[in-house]
Each structure stands twice: as structure tokens, then as C-alpha cells.
Amino acid sequence: xxxxQGDQVVVTSGxxxxxxxxxxxEVVQAGRKVLVEGVNRVYKHVKRGHPKSPQGGRLSIEKPIxxxxxxxxxxxxSKGVRLGYRYTAEGRKERFxxxxxxxxxxxxxxxxxxxxxx
Length: 118
Hints:
Blueprint: E1 8-11, E2 22-28, E3 33-36, E4 41-46, E5 57-62, E6 65-66, E7 70-74, E8 79-81, E9 83-87, E10 93-97, E11 103-106, H1 112-117
Antiparallel strand pairs: 1-2, 1-7, 2-3, 3-6, 4-5, 7-8, 9-10, 10-11
């Protein structure tokens, strides 16, 4: 999965599709879903004595959405883009913006086999 926790993303479909970047709170790996800040908010009604709300009432919580409904927000392009993987000259694997070719962060340590091959 190319979207990581802490990334800025743009929601592309659904009620919350607005174009403004939002932060990914958590990535649920098993279901290929992401928890995005301020998106897909629902109310959960709880009784008195609940640990999060001892007096009871309605809790507003965020639910995960499918990863196919978000795109990585590139700060240099100022819009949602697709990501790709590539190796740097040092042999590190990094994510990059497919539109402007800007780096989105290194994701692995240097690989000696890759450096020796060049």
C-alpha cells in the first residue's frame, strides 16, 4: 500500500470529497482501509458508565474509508497525485510523485545488491 500513516491525502469520492488535504491517522492493513482526519464521521450512542463518556450520550467518531477513495497530496503540485516507487543512487527505495517527480520520502535502507549492480 502506498499511503502511509501521517501522509496528507485528498478524498476523491463520497460526501467528503472537497479537495482540501487531510491527514491519515491510521492505516488498517487487513482491510486496505485508511482512517482520515475529519472524514466519515458517525455518531455512536453509548450508555452511562462507558469509559469514553461516563455520562452517556453521543460520541462522534471517524470510521475508515477504502484506500481507493483517497490520493496522496503532493505539496509541490498542490493537488492529489499517484505515487510510484524508485531506487535512489545510494540504493534506497523511495516514493515519488508521478506528476512532478518530487520525492515523497525514503521507505527502506540502502540495498547493497542494488548499489553493486550499478
